[in-house]
Amino acid sequence: MSSNDTRHVQIMIIGSGLSGLGTAIRLSQQGLTDFLVIERGPDVGGTWRDNTYPGAGCDVPSHLYSYSFALNPNWSATFSPQAEIEQYMRDVSQRYGVRDKHIFDCTMTGARWNDEDGRWEVSTSQGSFTADFVVSAAGVLAEPNLPDIKGISSFEGEIFHSARWNHDASLAGKKVAVIGTGSSSVQIVPSIAPEVAHLDVYQRTATWVMPQVKRPYLGLERFAFKRVPGLQRLLRALIYIQRELFVVTQVKYPATGIVLEMIGRLKMRFEIKDPELRRKVMPQHRIGCKRMLVSNKFYGALDRDNVDVVTDGIAEVRAHSIVTDDGTEREVDAIVLATGFHVADSPTYNLYTGRDGRTMSEAADVEGFQMYKGITVADFPNMFFMLGANSGLNYTSLIYIIESQINYLVDTITTMQAKNLRSFEVRVDAQHEYNRRLAPKLAKAVWADGGCTSWFLDKHGNNAALWPDFSYKYRKMVRTFDIEAYDTKAETA
Ligand code: NAP
């Protein structure tokens, strides 16, 4: 890639969701202005741009779900709808002047470390680039998981994934099937149930559902958020502390989850009249093993006369119907696949080729998906992997982790510049030791032995997704670049 058409930048950010956009803003604030963001979509927003399904919203309270440097006094409700978060991200990208650093509709097709030149070579749908540093901000929930069900390609009605909602397809008055009962499904089902003629909800695993205090903010409250100094910060801190309590039930003392399970049972008792339906949706795993669902309307929707919960496995999809393992055939006009995303097996990992010529997927195949502090990877020099292995959270705002990782990234790059270094690569022994210390915490968590499988686990059964401790400990851990864990090379000229 030495053609004259190749453009060089110091820092190439891949993806402009919450991590990529946040990184772009912080870099420009630090005076690190030689960067570009490539984004495969037509605008910023990532998952909040792509998930436009009916009822889409955030189940983390709105005042915690924003960048710490761009609080928003105008959130309309205690939990924000998707469109508001998407608009917030557009506004922020405008306000902080990073839009002209973006190339939209530009898909990264490969990124290879050139050890001789000490650079990344990045190929995209809009030409070739080289970069001193690459920031993978492609997102965890970006690649829809399309289930491999017999006959599914022969279905003749409307069929689409929750993250690729077809707004041209009206579901009103139709017979509809929703496959999956995860966080997306619990928002979709109550939104479409009143308008469809009939809805079959295909549930493979019942999951615990928690209530939420969801209400619009009053004008007076929004006025106070704007005018009373510190009020938003205080509310944010209180929400943060309240959410951290989930670490106790999931990681520190999983037995205490029984309190939440009691709330889940009571909720089921109050919201579902039909005892047979209550039996069907009763989870068989410990709470928190899968991501808890949050909804005040899901059970009520399942209890409607025009809604059936189907728990038999799906054997086959035919041109106009779905057949379950017991041989029952149910006619259907449209199928919504609320079947989640490729997380541990994201196709993105095939696109990065490290120093030894292996892709990230190939490396993960052998060793499992392992990183150092959730952001750097041995054999992949000068690369930051946002929301990498074991840096996810399933109970609070991921933006907290994203901003922690940005601190580390900025400190790494400024340290490199100050020491006149060209490349950094985490040492294999440091990465192994880090993961060795993480292992007992992961083993103790409810995700490991709570009696379920989930997208937190990779094909080896290892949890490579979640951070197994309080989130403030993660922030503390990545406050500064710990150069002693890295091999570095000096600038040559
Ligand atoms: P998900 O949680 O992975 O749920 C996928 C659902 O599809 C599960 O019920 C799964 O069953 C089912 N499924 C998958 N393949 C299937 C197959 N072949 N046959 C039958 N059922 C199948 O996906 P999601 O609901 O899209 O949520 C993904 C993540 O997005 C969430 O965990 C959350 O982190 C995030 N999210 C967040 C919000 C928010 O408000 N913050 C909202 C939506 C999504 P099993 O359980 O048996 O695997």
Automatic annotation (TrEMBL):
InterPro entries: FAD-bind_Monooxygenase_sf, FAD/NAD-bd_sf. Its EC number is 1.14.13.-. One of its GO terms (molecular function) is monooxygenase activity. Pfam families: Pyr_redox_3 (PF13738). It comes from Nocardia lasii. It comes from the Bacteria. This is Flavin-containing monooxygenase. It is an enzyme of class 1 (oxidoreductase). Keywords: Monooxygenase, Oxidoreductase.
